[in-house]
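Readers of this paper often ask what the protein records in our data store actually look like. Below, we set out a record of this kind in full and without editing:
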Amino acid sequence: MVTVEEYRVESDTMGEVKVPNSAYYGAQTQRAVENFPISGIRLPKEFIRAMALVKLAAARANIQLGLLEPKKGEAIVSAAKEVMEGSLYDQFVVDVFQTGSGTSTNMNANEVIANRAIELLGGKRGDKKLAKALEQKTIEFDDVVKAGRTHLQDAVPVTLGQEFSAYSSMIRHGIKRAELARDTLLELPLGGTATGTGLNAHPKYAELAIREVNRLTGLNFKKAENAFESMQGKDACVEASGLLKTIAASLMKIANDLRLLNSGPRTGLGEIDIPATEPGSSIMPGKVNPVIPEAVNLIAAQVIGNDAAITVCGSLGQLELNIMMPVIAYDLLQSIEILANGSRVLGEKCISGITADRERCYNYADRSLMVVTAITPHIGYDNAAKVAKKAIAENKSVRQVILEEKILPKEKLDEILDLKKMTKGGRA
């Protein structure tokens, strides 16, 4: 049973509030806790750390400008550092579903840092590893000839290495998109204060604060070209989310291809073998499922859903302020984290250990009906189609039909149906 003695009474412009004695936060945070008992989801540590970093930079800028007494300012800097190190994360208790500007979380930070400062005064890459793992398999599987498939139907041969080269290229492009997403977020509206006008801010505040942010992060943040735009709209966040969604789409395609190529072991394609990481069924002994690609699919679906939410939130910047920022921050940070972690796990626990069933791959390629495409220039399209249809009807390979019908001599046929040569566009 909670007793009155476990609380202290604080006041703000709306009156008195009971706040837990152990809390560094104060009245406004407590009001938010009581007003928004929605999900139990808090903004992640990365966001709180970034916010504390900005508070630290702001304090140092104001010390330099003579607007903050050095002793108090350095206490604020020390308190902000503690928040950045994670030791006070339990003090950030406001639900992510709160006031749309994130004011409650901002005041939560102000109260925690201020109270800790008073006390002191005495009173994340995964995708690059994935790309390297895929590039290694591109080389390893370069000589593994297999059936190509389009529309999930037989197509002309490719090599397994060529398939993996496509995956590698998708991830390399994804890395560039991730870097572009980062760059879109480098404009900061610091100094814009309430609506973008800069009311009550020193003219040099933004420049000094951002310089300190850059010193602390090693990044190249800059003052927003237009503070009004940066505060009203969150287009940079929407753009970044869209780029992350594209990466998610690539990962989902790769994961599903791996599941198809690994399907079986007796009744599927079975062209590759994915490392077994855990039992696949409580009822079917010996069953092993492609759990890592499945997890990547779940991640991709979440990122795509986050993008939809961020897009809606980004559109709700009525007049001078976007009022959906907490959800934008939460979803964007979640997308970044799970994409990075999922990519790393896919590379380490799946791609790196994939092996090829070379014999099965070759047999599929040899029996593929569409090797008939290479015969077309020699016997004509209509005759080639007849060969394919006869092969289907009699369950024979194209090679068997052509030899039985004596359409081409064996030596010529062997030259034309050189499967490895076909994967190079017919060039040796």
Remarks:
- DSSP finds 17 helices and eight strands in the chain.
- The chain has a mean pLDDT of 93.
